[in-house]
Write a sequence for this structure.
């Protein structure tokens, strides 16, 4: 089995195992680097790390259009239900959610989470097991020692690590974070979307980790 990732820009991905597509943090409308529109996204599942607009901005429209199952913090799922989208799969950090394609676990992230002035629960990382591959999307977070423990528990094949600085780790902390997690491959995310988070991805250089720098629209195959 395999998983194919398509980078949507910023922190967004589509992950396809050949039968099912999982979108993580789809943010396309208002994303100056996006190469795809929200209308073009086809998926059965959407996982969200937290409630900020640069992560869940398009999620409701995409969920409605695709009748997608939304996997996210309890409070985010409540919001979707109130907006008339009942196909939700609520969780919280520490929980593992079995799905048709495998499972999703929500992990801790040090950040905030709100949308339209409303509290959206704990910010999370998302570990997705799909196509028999384990992919750890860190969400928006700073570094914390338990990243090492999360790496030990889930043994991800690939990590998606924010490097934009200011709101998340910058390249220096992200490099240390990726080394602590210990996955063989890493993709830097959450940078260059706007001027305040411009970074040189070459500064993200964890030892012993193969770094894949993806441009919006690029795909990465995990076999
Ligand atoms: Ni955020
Ligand atoms: Mn963000």
């Amino acid at each position: 089995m395999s998983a194919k990732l398509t980078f949507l820009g910023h922190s967004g991905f589509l992950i396809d195992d050949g039968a099912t597509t999982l979108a993580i943090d789809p943010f396309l409308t208002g994303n100056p680097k996006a190469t795809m529109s929200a209308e073009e996204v086809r998926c059965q599942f959407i996982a969200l790390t937290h409630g900020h607009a640069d992560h869940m901005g398009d999620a409701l429209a995409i969920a409605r259009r695709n009748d997608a199952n939304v996997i996210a913090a309890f409070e985010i799922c409540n919001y979707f239900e109130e907006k008339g989208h009942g196909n939700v799969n609520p969780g919280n950090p520490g929980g593992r959610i079995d799905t048709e394609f495998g499972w999703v676990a929500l992990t801790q992230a040090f950040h905030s989470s709100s949308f339209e002035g409303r509290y959206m629960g704990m910010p999370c990382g998302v570990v997705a097991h799909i196509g028999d591959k384990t992919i750890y999307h860190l969400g928006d977070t700073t570094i914390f020692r338990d990243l090492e423990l999360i790496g030990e528990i889930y043994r991800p094949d690939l990590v998606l690590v924010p490097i934009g600085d200011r709101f998340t780790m910058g390249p220096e902390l992200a490099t240390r974070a990726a080394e602590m997690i210990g996955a063989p491959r890493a993709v830097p995310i959450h940078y260059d979307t706007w001027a305040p988070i411009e970074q040189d991805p070459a500064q993200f250089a964890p030892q012993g980790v193969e770094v894949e720098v993806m441009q919006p629209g690029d795909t990465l195959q995990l076999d």
